[in-house]
Amino acid sequence: MDTMHGYRPLKKNILFADDFDKGLNGWINLMPNFRQDIFNYYPAQQGWTSWGPPMLSSATYGYAGTHGSLHGTYSMKLSTRPVANPADQLPAPGSQGIAIKRLTHIDKGFLKCEMYYTFTAEQNIPGIGEDAIRAFGFFWDSTDEESRTFYGARYMNCANDSMQQRWQVFQVNKESKEPWGYEGESAPGDTKDEKVTLAKGIDTIWLGKRYSNGSTDGFYDIPNSSQKLCYNETPDKINWHYFSLTVDLDKGEYVELCSVNKRFDLRGIAATTVGRYPRIDWLLNPVLFIEGNDNRRVFLYVDSIVNSTGSSLEEINK
Fold this sequence. Notes:
mainly beta; Jelly Rolls
C-alpha cells in the first residue's frame, strides 16, 4: 500500500497490507481438498465447489457509472449466485462468496485485522436489496503444532424475512447436542491409514446447526452488538466501512471488534480450539466471505486490508 491512512496497525509486524489497485495479492477462492486417486473432491465436500471466487472490480453500475474504490479504482469483489436456503438450513451451493489468502505465522501475541469494505445487492430487480444479504465477515484459520483455531467475526444482517443487524464471533455452542455437519473424511492424514474429519469449530461458515433468527451452533452473539450499517438508498450507492478484529493468540481469546464508530470489548470470550490437523502446522489463513439471503446476487467489496501483530494491549487501546 502507498499509504496507511485510516489504519491503526499493531507495532510489532505488519504481516501484509493489501491494496487491490495492485492486484489480488494472493487472495483466491476457497476450495475443498482434491483427491487425485479418485480425481474428485472428498465425498463429504463435493457440495463445496460452487462458492464464488474473488475478482477485481471498479464497482461499475448501470445508472451510477463507476464508483471506484476508497483509495483508487479497484477493490476485491466477492459475489454469490442468486440462490439461498432458509436461515435454519446449511448454505445452498453458490450462496456464498469466499476468498482466502494463505500464509504462515510469524508471531504469537496479539493479531489484528483491519479493512475498509462495503456491500450491496445486484441492481437487477425492484427493491434496494438490503434484505438480500444474509451475512458477511472475516476470520483466521490459525494453527500451531498442537491445535487449530478459527477466530472470526460475522455481521448477521438478515435471516429469512427478518432484519437482524448484529455482530457474532466464531465460537462453538458447547451445550448443543446437534451434529456439526458432514462426518466423512476431509483431508489426508500424516500416514496412509490416518482418518481426518471436521471437528466442531472447523469450517464454521457452512457447518453447525442453524436457526431461523440467524444464530448457529458455531457463532456466539456478542451482547448489545446491534448496529445498523450504512446501506444507502439504492444498490448503486456504496459507502465504505471501517472494520477491525483483534485476538490474543497466546490466550486463545478475542480482544475487541471495531465497526465504524462502535467498539465492542471481547476480552474473556474464548475462541474454539480443536486438536492438531496434519501437515498444516503454523498455518495462518485470513478469509473473507459473504452469504446471500434470497434469489438475488449480493456483493462484498474490500478496498484494502491490513493484518498486523503486537505484544501488548496498550498498543491496541491507543
